[in-house]
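Module 6 notes. Inverse folding takes a fixed backbone as the condition and produces residue identities as the prediction. Think of it as a translation problem where the source language is geometry and the target language is the twenty amino acids. Below is one complete input and output pair. Work through it position by position during the lab.
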């Protein structure tokens, strides 16, 4: 995160210098990003749940699901989150909310029907660990930084069109060339950092979830079943993919020579690696 912030400030300085503005350029973008992120901080959970087609679940209708969440919440010392169900045969689940007091856990009907009790406990333990570790808040901060860099690059290119020679008197040719290259590469690099952080948080949630349930095999078996299932989540999108316990698109090639490169652009670590680590605990 520290390196990410340093990277953002470096990109801001170079692009601002290229246009002859200096750090004031970054300051304006930060203010814009801050205003945009204010609403998302308080309403991101509602937006994600709405985009996913989730509906509130009652204890009477989903007693087993409700009981597992309730028991694990007590065991972890967390407030009972709101629970939601997504009517979809694809097995998957996610947690959202800015903090434990405003958390929600959503599961598809597919995962509730296809997993055993021990496997479902492993999944819920993983999701509650995301809540306990404030992962949704962290990823929100990361998303703001990534979005700010994207805005920086976009404003830079638009400013280049309307910049006159007189406007460029405070900038040098070297900074302009470096600025153009950086404006192209910075959003890609920022996205790669964002995905790397997302994958790390998945490993952490796996470990903490296994610690909570005291049964790593439950989560390991659940991940294998979810990955092997052929159904694709209908309302999944690139904006919400990183929330789920497993990649909802199921498009990572297996045993491919370029798999390492593909994994760089994945929101989740390879399932085989996650299962191997869980079973080594």
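Target side of the pair, the amino acids:
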């Amino acid at each position: 995160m520290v390196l990410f912030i340093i990277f953002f400030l470096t990109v801001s300085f170079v692009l601002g210098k290229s246009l002859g503005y200096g750090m004031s350029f970054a300051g304006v973008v930060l203010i814009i990003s801050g205003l945009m992120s204010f609403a998302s901080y308080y309403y991101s959970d509602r937006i994600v749940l709405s985009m996913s087609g989730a509906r509130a679940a009652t204890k009477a209708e989903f007693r087993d699901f409700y009981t597992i969440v309730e028991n694990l919440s007590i065991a972890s010392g967390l407030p009972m989150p709101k629970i939601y169900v997504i009517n979809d045969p694809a097995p998957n689940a996610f947690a959202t909310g800015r903090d434990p007091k405003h958390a929600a856990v959503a599961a598809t009907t597919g995962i509730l029907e296809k997993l055993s009790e021990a496997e479902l406990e492993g999944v819920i333990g993983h999701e509650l660990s995301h809540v306990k570790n404030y992962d949704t808040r962290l990823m929100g901060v990361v998303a703001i930084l990534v979005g700010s860099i994207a805005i920086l690059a976009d404003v830079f290119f638009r400013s280049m069109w309307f910049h006159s020679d007189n406007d460029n008197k405070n900038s040098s040719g070297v900074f302009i060339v470096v600025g153009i290259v950086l404006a192209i590469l910075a959003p890609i690099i920022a996205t790669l950092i964002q995905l790397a952080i997302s994958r790390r948080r998945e490993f952490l949630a796996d470990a903490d979830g296994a610690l909570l349930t005291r049964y790593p095999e439950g989560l390991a078996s659940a991940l294998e079943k979810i990955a092997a299932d052929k159904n694709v989540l209908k309302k999944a999108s690139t904006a919400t993919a990183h929330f789920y316990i497993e990649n909802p698109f199921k498009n990572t090639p297996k045993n491919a020579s370029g798999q390492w490169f593909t994994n760089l652009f994945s929101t989740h670590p390879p399932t085989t690696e996650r299962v191997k680590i869980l079973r080594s605990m």
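Reference fact for the lab report: Residues 4 and 64 are 42 Å apart (CA to CA).
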